[in-house]
What we know:
- There is one protein chain.
- This protein has helices spanning 13-23, 58-74, 115-119, 122-133, 137-142, 155-171, 177-187, 234-243, 246-256, 261-284, 288-301; strands at residues 32-37, 41-46, 50-55, 85-89, 99-103, 200-202, 211-213, 219-222, 229-231.
- The chain is globular.
- The protein is of the alpha+beta class.
- The strands form three sheets. Strands 1-2-3-5-4 form a five-stranded antiparallel beta sheet, sandwiched between helices.
- The mean pLDDT is 93.
- Helix 6 packs parallel to helix 10 and helix 10 (261-284) packs antiparallel against helix 11.
Amino acid sequence: MSKPWEPEHDISIDNATEMIEKQFPQLKPAQVTILGEGFDNSVFLVNNQYVFRFPRRQIAATLMETECRILPLIAPMLPFSIPHPQFLGIPENEYPWPFAGYEMLRGNTPVGLTEEQRAQSAKPLALFLKNLHSFPTRKAKQLSIPYDQLGRLNLVKRKPMLEENIERAMEQGLLDSFIVEKLNSFLATISGPFEDETLALVHGDLHIKNMLVSDKGEISAVIDWGDLHIGHPVIDLSIVYSFLPAAGRNEFFQWYGDVLPEWKKAAKFKAIYTLMMLLLYADAQNDQVLRTECDAALRLALT
Length: 303
């Protein structure tokens, strides 16, 4: 069975270097190193200054084009730094899709943070999402921003998918009995569809791999906007449960605005669903750091 992180097309560091130097000669000689690989993109650091993302699948290429249209418009609204597309590459040789380069945003991956460090981001994270979600959906539609095409909050469909991933994680020894018990207790409360039809402009993939923090542990940047779309705000509110401790959540909703209990339950479900995907991905990639962070985030989400 194919895995969701298996690419449709991948690119080597040599091919990426050749394409970057040919299409952007001002960057020659390009010193290119691998920065990381996600579900959708291969990411390279160029000249220790720019980050280039090459899609690994068609849907990511389409979303990248969308991202490059809207990021310059929303950046002034947001309290965190976000990528600014400066280099727009075109398909070449056997590589089939556009790619993009951005000024590198400085910060650290949120690894090993204490609950106190996480809680200090509650207010700025709330204002970030409040401002993002206030972007007029009519204008987003005019910019050809897509609607949610993946059914991200189709709980009836995704609950059995999550249960299957939990089973796989248990078989691979990735979950202890405490987490399994908490997961089963929570999933027992999910008995029907989420039917709220509120729409907003959403990041779409807000989790620990797509944020940077300062030396003090405060969120400083949000990256990887490839899943930007018009969807339900709950999709982004999942970060409240996968990143913030309970005390921080209370402060978050004071600044964002309180939401319905149904929203909070769906956001918690989305957080757990995403973390299980990340946990399995981390195990497949033998990424012990990400495995540890997913374990910590699951424990937060389940409290």
